[in-house]
Write a structure and sequence with these properties.
By secondary structure, this protein is an alpha/beta fold. Helices cover 45% and strands 14% of the residues. Strands 3-2-1-4-5-6-7 form a seven-stranded parallel sheet, sandwiched between helices. Strand 12, helix 11 and strand 13 form a beta-alpha-beta unit. The longest helix is centred in the first third of the chain and has 23 residues.
Length: 410
């Protein structure tokens, strides 16, 4: 089986699809990960095969959506452009790698287009709870506009399957995506790395990790949070992007600042608390290891997307405390950390969530489901479905020959 995995050119979104990519390859399938060339080296670093397509894109042009109406539409429009660039770039490469299956992460809009044009199943792999409904609607509207301009089908059908990594107690029933669901255990992957010598030694104090993810929005809070924790008898570890690590280390010399240490390595060695921005990868990684969490809302608007949703769900399951990055005081940070480390209920709730995650089907088991899905799709070749598939193949041929489209403007 040839499996094409598509992703937006952002590290955390690539990391979401890596465990399933590994499982597909381990089962003997031919796996390619397609993205704009921005992250080709990062894909190669996962040991999966990269399939770069489309032009380099200045990702700093992607506007930061802070949950406000004037930020959502530009964010959705730029995300749709990213999807259009990747879809157009991929269309000319599918003769070399005609997929039997397309797997995509939630923000990628190219995967569903390519699956439709190739007449193969599209599988949506979640990275956590679904986006807020207004974000989903804005993305769909922006994507439809790109498809119209390119002469592609006006509507993209829903995914053939939704692979859901959220454990039962972490689900958001009000935002459940429509369609068949396959639960899959969340397997933490936070990029490649090596275990440093200091991490092999037992910690002599409680260890607190402070991270604001791979994006830039929360980085101004790193130094402030780490400095506030200096009054406690804890070891503060700050995995930071290389471009901000030196700044944080200079501002908070008492903290251990490291560059790009994968979070799972730190948590596997033993960590008592994670302070973070509410990103789904960070939240689920910490839950996988049964670690309580303090979430700091970089954006305080209730509809500010996945980070706020994750913070709310973490609090609902009893594993975290949430603070406002704008309104909190240093004393609020200290009080929340002290409560999370001394009140046993938070760790018990986090441990219960870890048990739920362990009980979910593995990525290997999910591959068996995908194999059956592809087999059923291929059996429909002699049915009326063939007409639809042929129409899509004809449209794909037109795109590949350049008769039905023009490149999306970068």
């Amino acid at each position: 089986m040839r499996a094409l995995i598509t992703t937006t050119p952002f590290l955390s979104h690539l990391w979401d699809v890596v465990p399933l990519g590994w499982a597909l390859r381990s089962a003997g399938h031919d796996v390619r990960v397609a993205a704009l060339p921005n992250i080709t080296e990062d894909i190669v670093a996962t040991s999966l095969t990269a399939m770069p397509a489309g032009p380099l894109f200045d990702t700093t042009l992607v506007p930061d959506w802070s949950g406000q109406d004037d930020g959502l539409l530009p964010f959705a429009s730029t995300t749709a452009r990213l999807g259009g660039l990747l879809a157009h770039g991929l269309a000319g490469k599918l003769d070399d790698f005609p997929p039997d299956l397309v797997v995509h992460e939630p923000l990628d809009l190219a995967g569903p287009i390519i699956a439709q044009l190739a007449g193969v199943p599209a599988v949506h792999v979640s990275c956590g709870p679904p986006y807020a409904p207004r974000a989903v609607q804005a993305l769909a509207k922006a994507a439809a506009s790109v498809r119209r301009r390119q002469g592609w089908p006006a509507e993209v059908p829903p995914p053939a399957l939704i692979v859901d990594v959220c454990p039962p107690s972490y689900a958001d029933p009000d935002r459940r995506l429509a369609g068949p669901h396959q639960p899959m255990r969340f397997v933490p992957y936070n990029g490649p790395g090596a275990v440093p010598d200091w991490l092999r030694e037992p910690a002599d104090r409680p260890r607190v990790c402070v991270t604001m993810g791979t994006g830039a929005a929360g980085h101004p809070l790193l130094s402030r949070i780490a400095a506030a924790l200096a009054s406690l008898d804890v070891e503060v570890v700050v995995p930071a992007r290389p471009d901000v690590a030196a700044q944080v280390a200079e501002a908070v010399p008492a903290a251990r600042v490291v560059e790009w240490l994968p979070l799972k390595l730190l948590l596997a060695a033993g960590c008592d608390l994670v302070v973070h921005h509410g990103g789904p990868g960070t939240a689920l990684t910490a839950l996988s290891y049964g670690v309580p969490q303090l979430t700091v809302h970089v954006h305080d608007h209730p509809a500010a997307g996945e980070h706020y949703i994750n913070s709310r769900l973490l609090k609902a399951c009893g594993a975290s405390i949430g603070l406002s990055g704008r309104a909190m005081t240093d004393q609020d940070i200290v009080d929340a950390v002290r409560a999370l480390m001394t009140e046993s209920g938070y760790r018990a709730a986090a441990g219960a969530m870890a048990a739920e995650i362990r009980a979910m089907p593995s990525p290997a088991a999910t591959v068996e489901v995908l194999e059956r899905l592809v087999g059923q799709a291929q059996e429909q070749i002699q049915t009326p479905y063939q007409t639809q598939a042929l129409d899509q193949t004809q449209a794909l041929s037109q795109i590949q020959t350049g008769r039905a489209t023009r490149p999306v403007e970068a």
